[in-house]
Structures are given as C-alpha cells and as structure tokens.
Amino acid sequence: HFLTPMTNAFFGAISAVSSPFIFLSVLSSICSMGDTDTLGKIGKKTLSAIFGYMTVGGLGLTLIAIPFYRITLEGSGTGADFSKVLELIYNIVPTNIIDPFISGNALQVIFIAVIVGVAMLLVSTRVSSVFAVVKQLSTVVQTVMGIVLEALPLAVFVIFTNMIANGAIGELLDSYKMILIILLLVIVYLIAMVLWISMRKR
User: Fold this and answer.
1) pTM value surpassing 0.85
2) What is the pLDDT of residues 123-145, one digit of tens each?
C-alpha cells in the first residue's frame, strides 16, 4: 500500500494540468488562425477529417474485436444508450466557467476554449496583446505537462509493482484480449498510413 500515494500523486498532477493544457492548446490554436474566415475553412476540413477517422476507426475496431468478443445487435429497446449520448451532447454547455476545470470535464473545457477563441478573433484588433499572453501561457503549460509525463514510465512501473504486491496481477492477465486489440489497431493504422503515403507520392 505504500506505493499507492505515489500513483495517486502522479494522476493528481495529470488531472491538475490537463484542463489548463486542453484549454490553452485549443485557444492558442484558434488564435493562431488570425481571423474567423480562416477558422471556418480549417474548421470544416478538421471536422470532416475527425468524423471520417471516427467512422473508419469505429468500423475497424468492430471488425478487429469480433474474434475476441461476442458482439450482438440486440438492445433493450428503452433507448437508454442513445439517451446517454444525448446527455453527453447536452452537457457540453457548462453551467459556469469554473466547474469544468475543477471537475476535469474535457468537452466543456474545449467548448469554453472555442467560444473564447472565436470571441478573441472577432475583436482581435483590440486584444492583440492577449494573443501573445495566451501563446506564452500555452508554452508554459505544455512545458509543465512534459515534465509530468517524464514520470510516466516510473508511474507505470509503480502501478505494476503495486498490482503484483497486492496479488492483482490476474486482473492484468485477464485483459489480454484488449491488449491484443490495441496492438492489432496500431498495426492496421501503420499499414494504412504507409499505403496512404505511398499513394500520395504517386
């Protein structure tokens, strides 16, 4: 149990830095576009690419998972799963600007960053000095996140050691299917990228 505080401290540091990191990264990216016209053009391409990757990735994950898990199309008919999706979409708008950073709600943090970024672009001539501040703060937070992630290998080692000490290594062995699926996804992704690059060069 003496290793638990170490893992708690690591994940606590990740949680503390993640919200400012997400907010400033998105805000800095939007501010760097210069104007709303550029944001609109890039935004359309980005959203199209995201939906495309999500669709292809979802189909690929399903096909790879079929040999390992029993997948059925049966449902309870209550619409509970769909209601969870709707709830996730509805809750993207926070009730206040502070709570998403405290609770670590990434979607709400991104929503706030997009709203603030668009507002800054609309009044860019009057807040030009703020753009520089945002960029500098983003650099600082990215540096802090990099320092925290330097401890990731040690944290993983501590987690495995803690599991072995507590006799919970069986839980890890039981998850071999998920590990194999992840490895297969990485292999498929690398093959797809090589094919895509080769086609682009032609």
Assistant:
1) no
2) 877 878 888 899 999 999 999 98
Which of the 8 DSSP states describes residue 32?
A: T
Residues in CB range of 185: below 8 A, 6 or more apart:
60, 61, 64
Question: What count of other Cβ atoms lies within 10 Å of the Cβ of residue 202?
Answer: 4
Residue 73 has what DSSP assignment? Answer: -
Measured between alpha carbons, how far is residue 162 from residues 1, 3, 62, 178 in Å? 7, 6, 33, 21
Task: Report the C-alpha gap between 123 and 118 in whole angstroms.
Answer: 9
Radius of gyration of the chain (CA): 21
Segment 6-22, tens digit of pLDDT: 777 878 888 888 899 99
Q: Which residue has the tokens 């503390």?
A: 16
65 close to 71: Cβ distance less than 8 angstroms: yes
User: Measured on CA atoms in the order 77, 78, 79, 84, is the torsion positive or negative?
Assistant: negative
